[in-house]
Amino acid sequence: MTVVTRSAQLFPLKPCIRLNAVRLVSLLVSAFLLSGCAGALWSDPVARQLNLFTQERLLLTADYARHHYGGDGYELREPRMIVLHYTAFPTLDESVRFFSSPFLDTEFRRDISAGGAVNVSAHYLVDRDGTVYQTAGENVICRHTIGFNHLALGIENVGRGAEQLTEEQAEADAALILRILRRHPSIRFLIGHDEYRDSRRPHYKLFREDDSTYGPTHKIDPGKTFMARVRSILAKRYGILLED
Ligand SMILES: [Zn+2]
Question: How close is the Cα of 2 to the center of ligand 1, in Å?
Answer without folding.
Answer: 44
